Amino acid sequence: MHPETGWTLKPLAPLSTAEFDNWCQLLEERSGIVWREDRKSYLEVRLTSRMRELGIADYDSYYHQVLQGTRGTLEWSHLLDRLTVQETRFFRHPPSFDFALEHLQQRLLAGREALGLWSVGCSTGQEAWSLAMIAADAVRLAGSEVGFSVMATDISRSALTTARQALYSAQAIEPVSPAMRKRYLQAQEDGSYRVSKVLARRMCFARINVLELANLPFSGMDLVFCQNVLIYFRRWQRRSILNQLVERLLPGGVLVLGVGEITGWEHPDMLPVHNDKILAFVRKG
Which positions ≥6 away from 51 have C-beta within 8 Å? Predict the structure, then answer.
């Protein structure tokens, strides 16, 4: 096909109401993600980008390809990666990380022999590595030799691949303080920065759907970060996810959410943290 007349230069028509509904239903059935009307254009862009790579000219044909057999399953996984990788950055919400550092220091003073942290929906890793930095700082400031570990989970394979590489641009690491850069980041010849092996040894990445938390074997967490995740799910699913996260917390452990992500949630084992700058809960005991 001649490049000047090829279909790839022609913009696809907007998703029809029926097509949009079909994709929304598929997304919710397979991942639990609720795709809102105000994100329709984002869905169109992501679908169009992938369809052009495959040489598919209409939404309906691509939809049916995703549904067909092993090939469709693999294609669905590829598409889901594109739809779920969220923009993130180091220390995205500073008050939450300030609170987390203080909490970890208190846990160490209380005699904890090891610290367990979890980044739920870690995307490309900046949140998880930020947590590792504050955990290392908490141990350092306490003059302790206590170990710590960070579990980082996400549904996107491509996001986890980036997170595991632990390599970020100079622009990406701007929110990291100069002192932390010196301690935990290593400058590369091309101007990028790699997270130090000291932190990498403490990190474990895993692909997990938050709707399947009941199947997870791990628990014993001192700190769980779950920010900018719940907004993609229905209200009853949010509550179910939170209830599962509570079960992974130790007594005195803290659950940190994104400000405004949930309202009216209560749990018999949890107490709200009274701090206007953050949204967090501590497990009783």
Answer: 12, 57, 59, 62
What pTM was estimated for this model as a whole? 0.84
Q: What are the sequence ranges of the domains in the chain?
A: 7-84, 94-283
Rounded-to-integer distance, Cα 7 and Cα 10, Å: 5
CA distance 183 to 139: 13
**Would you say 58 and 96 are in contact if contact means Cβ atoms under 8 Å apart?**
no
**Which numeric CATH code is attached to 94-283?**
3.40.50.150
pLDDT tens sequence across 158-177: 899 999 999 999 999 999 99
7-84, which class in CATH? Answer: mainly alpha
The CB density around residue 246, as the number of other CB atoms within 10 Å, is 17
CB 130 within 8 A of CB 90: yes
Strand partners, 150: 117, 203
Secondary structure class of 5 (helix, strand, coil): coil
